[in-house]
Amino acid sequence: MEALLMAEEKTKQDKKGRLLALRDYLYKYTDEQHPVSTQELIDEMTRQGYPGNRKTIKDDIDVLNKFGMDIITNVSRGNSFYMASREFEIPELKLLVDAVSSSRFISAARSEQLIGKLTAMASEYEKEQITPRIFTGDRIKANNPHLYYVVDMLIQAIQNKKKVRFQYGEFDADKHKVLRNDGEIYINSPYGCLWNDDFYYLVGYSEKREKVVTFRVDRIVDLEIMDDDIIPEPADFDMSDYAKIVIEMFDGEPQEVELLCDNELMKSVIDKFGENIKTERVSDEQFKAVVNVSTSKTFYAWCFRFAEQMKIVGPENVKNTYIEMARSVIG
């Protein structure tokens, strides 16, 4: 009796193993252009230690399909089989691989790991369509292997509504990493993280500065989650609006600014501020744009990029600051 029970248990285990082996093989080695025959599947399962026949193959495929797999049986080709769909389509994987490959936030080593995981979601043949698009060696990449864990801790703190404390790094004139303000401890009530220009930014409330501020996540050092609950978001705070106003993620005074631009700059203005900004053609050569921005040095630097093709019309205080910055550059 005991021997019979053991034999039945082994049969169950063999069937489970055969199903998993069959699923993995179809996932890795088949697609619409590369189906496999029943005999090829029998031979492969036998090679892996799961001998069977045409009936077991058919029954196992029926079970896999019943539980969500998309395995197509091509009767016209003598019952050949292939995995018809996966979690991601090839165009989607290409987009994800390119995003990971080009991201400065993700280190080169971590990029290769992520790309490996993404390409594993395609068949061995489809990988060839993705791999040639991977170029990471000549791109500037982050050199901080702990970024993943910093982001993970920040997400935990945001979800649990707990304050965080940390130090903030920067570089001195000799390109040495140093702590800002002699190692000052920053305490922040985190509200969310924003992605902008290939960098992650923490957005949260600073009690010291009594306002919502941003920090580059890759410059955060010795992050800790505190036991204290966060200070609730100000009543007038909206993360989407904040992201639109604080361009390039540098703090400044949010203001409505009027720009006078050459017509050819319309695409650059829309790229920066979106299609919903207020614009008005003023001549055959120029248009006006009214934008809500954080008037920081970064905003002024963005305007400088276009030299005489873009002018700040108002308000007067912003215009004067821009003029003074131009004079200081000239010396």
From TrEMBL:
Listed InterPro entries: CBASS_pafABC_assoc_protein (IPR051534), WH-like_DNA-bd_sf (IPR036388), WH_DNA-bd_sf (IPR036390), WYL_dom (IPR026881)
Limits of the WYL domain: 150-225
Coiled-coil residues: none
Gene3D superfamilies: Winged helix-like DNA-binding domain superfamily/Winged helix DNA-binding domain (1.10.10.10)
Pfam families: WYL (PF13280)
PROSITE patterns in the record: WYL (PS52050)
UniProt name for this protein: WYL domain-containing protein
Species: Waltera intestinalis
Lineage, top ranks: Bacteria, Bacillati, Bacillota, Clostridia, Lachnospirales
